[in-house]
């Protein structure tokens, strides 16, 4: 292992948050970016079979526990965040269509989306405000975060599963037919449940 690779390893180990190749290059005295990337790939291979791995999530690198050892590190009492159906649908829409405004989310779902639902996703660290749409009214637009990719084990949004895979895992069970049709993963089989219940749904019951 050469000095540059050791420097990259030390920087990532000490970092408070994941680092991009560009940030590492600057941190290590403007080291050549190509050499930084080569060192990252070599380190990832070096750690591939060890108790910790070097992984890339959203163009940023960090060390994480190998998945097959996760059960050894779980706390005896583990609390998990359970998303409501509304929050799960909104998260999926943002992930597949980002950046997207609240009005666009509502158009896909067929029902109103409360601010509380978006607040839950932002508090979880999975969704962020990504600016404003340059149209009349300049609505706020939302996008996913690197923490979203990290939580779901994705290197980038290109690794997002298809709708059938999501349903099989229970992450999107069920997803509105309107959303299903919009992303082109299948034909609408029947009336959208969102359309049937949209008039009854209100902001107080969504978050």
What does this molecule look like?
With 207 residues, the chain is α+β, with helices and mostly antiparallel strands. It folds into 2 domains: 3-73, Orthogonal Bundle (Arc Repressor Mutant, subunit A); 85-195, Orthogonal Bundle (Arc Repressor Mutant, subunit A), CATH 1.10.10.10. The protein is 44% helix and 13% strand. It is built from 11 helices and 6 strands. It has a 3-stranded antiparallel sheet. It has a 3-stranded antiparallel sheet with strand order 4-6-5. A hairpin with a 7-residue loop joins strand 5 (127-132) and strand 6. Helix 1 crosses helix 3 (33-46), helix 2 (21-27) crosses helix 3 (33-46) and helix 5 (85-97) packs across helix 7. The relative contact order is 0.12.
SSE order and pairing:
Layout: H1 3-14, E1 19-20, H2 21-27, H3 33-46, E2 52-57, E3 60-65, H4 70-73, H5 85-97, E4 100-101, H6 102-109, H7 115-123, E5 127-132, E6 140-144, H8 146-151, H9 163-169, H10 177-182, H11 193-197
Antiparallel strand pairs: 1-3, 2-3, 4-6, 5-6
Task: Supply database-style keywords.
207 residues; alpha+beta; three-stranded antiparallel β-sheet; 11 helices; elongated; disordered C terminus
Task: Label the CATH architecture of the largest domain.
Answer: Orthogonal Bundle
| Rounded Rg | 20 Å
Distance between the termini: 50 Å
- Per CATH, the superfamily of the largest domain is Winged helix-like DNA-binding domain superfamily/Winged helix DNA-binding domain
Biggest pleated sheet: 3 strands, antiparallel
Give the mean pLDDT.
76
Q: State the share of residues found in helices, binned by percent.
A: 40-55%
């Amino acid at each position: 292992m050469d000095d540059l690779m050791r420097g990259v390893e030390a920087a990532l180990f000490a970092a408070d948050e994941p680092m991009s190749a560009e940030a590492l290059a600057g941190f290590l005295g403007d080291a050549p970016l190509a050499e930084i990337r080569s060192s990252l790939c070599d380190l990832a291979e070096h750690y591939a079979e060890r108790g910790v791995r070097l992984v890339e999530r959203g163009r940023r690198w960090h060390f994480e526990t190998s998945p097959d050892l996760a059960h050894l590190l779980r706390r005896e009492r583990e609390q998990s965040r359970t998303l409501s159906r509304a929050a799960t649908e909104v998260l999926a829409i943002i992930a597949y269509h980002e950046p997207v405004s609240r009005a666009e989310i509502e158009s896909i779902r067929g029902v109103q989306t409360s601010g509380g639902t978006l607040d839950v996703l932002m508090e979880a660290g999975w969704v962020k405000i990504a600016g404003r749409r340059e149209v009349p009214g300049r609505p706020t637009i939302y996008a996913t975060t690197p923490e979203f990719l990290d939580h779901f084990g994705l290197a980038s949004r290109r690794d997002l599963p298809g709708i059938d895979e999501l349903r099989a895992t229970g992450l999107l069970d069920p997803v509105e037919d309107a959303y299903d049709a919009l992303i082109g993963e299948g034909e609408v089989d029947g009336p959208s449940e969102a359309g049937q219940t949209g008039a009854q749904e209100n902001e107080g019951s969504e978050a």
